[in-house]
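Quick illustration, no need to memorize.
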Amino acid sequence: MATLEATVRQQPHAAVIDLKGDIDGAGESALQKAYADAAAQKPSSILLNFGEVGYINSKGIALIVMLLAQARKSGTRLLTTGLSSHYVEIFNITRLSDFMKIYPDEASALANSG
């Protein structure tokens, strides 16, 4: 398993969290810190970029649900990009996609982030 790395980039209407590695229980602190850093700027949207994520287990899905709850509480839209077709299907099955818009690429996500 690859340890999760999460870095934040600011864009005009959104903060982008670039995720690299595996999203599981061991990645909770990295994910929480990146989300807190992104949310501190009070963007209208936060984009989770899954482009370099190899694996998400059930604990990882629970962590994403936790971020979604934080975003909804603060009125921030949570967007996603870079999900493999397998994880798009998982997000559809778990109904995460009902609450987080999935975009095929970062440009289209950012175009709808304002």
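The chain has one domain: 5-111.
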